[in-house]
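[step 3/7] fold_predict: job queued, chain A
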Amino acid sequence: MASQAQIESTYNYLDGLWRHCLGENADCSGAMYDGDFALTLEQAQKKKHDFALGHLSIKPGDRVLDVGCGWGAMLSAIRGRGAHGVGVTLSTKQYKHCKRCGFEVYLRDWKAVNPAEMGQFDAITSVGSFEHYCSDDEFIAGKQNQIYDQFFKFCYALLPIKRRMFLQTMTFGRYVPDPAKLTLDAKKGSDERIMALVRKFYPGSWLPAGLDHIKETARPYFKFVTANSGRLDYIETIDQWDIRFKRFNLKKIIAVLRIFPYFLKDPELRYKLESARNNCNQECFKRRLMDHYRIVLEKH
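[step 4/7] structure written:
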């Protein structure tokens, strides 16, 4: 799994910029347009939250765990339904912001959490954090399935029978290059170099192979209910992010300037900025090097 330092190197330096561009509870994961690209970004993000919480049958008074809660977008949606959300994150910036918003959030690695300490939940959400659960080294060591089994076992222990979890994650796509050829030395603009830049943006994070891979590793604990691809939705989401990032705003300029000291701390930051500047994530979705799924699972 990506370490706390790696998660923070991905998200902490973008803290102010994300929130100034996307709102205080910035949702930095794919929205749900479902073919209706006339929707605003905010409407599409709400549609995603409604899709997730609707399939989870969330009602007032329910207790919902959000694994990898980010800046609190899903926690805010849970609160809006009269339920109580509990978040865990490895980013200190995200943790502090969620606490300021009055959310119950813990700076914890789910692997280090004893389910007995958490109590029972009525549902679980995980939006964009599953991508970080297996590191490159763990994949090479053949531990990916073991890690996913551990996660689903963890979720299984927290839910009553027939209660559900919502999982949204990127996966590798149909045309992903040979992992051994993902290098920054590859030809500029090639699939191999684009994927190498994305790996720099998300250090310590290796994606699942696809939807079937997730279904198979969840099978001992959860029944598959439904899933849909958000690949095209993510392409539109990134376009909408670009529009907001390019709007002039004094607070945004200050947030950008605050990124520069990270160059002294993170020797990989220039590659992350190159990846963001060239929209490498979006290009991966366009080329089908990566896919993206919204998945609903139900405890056996």
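[step 5/7] annotate
The chain has 15 helices and seven strands.
The mean pLDDT is 91.
exit 0
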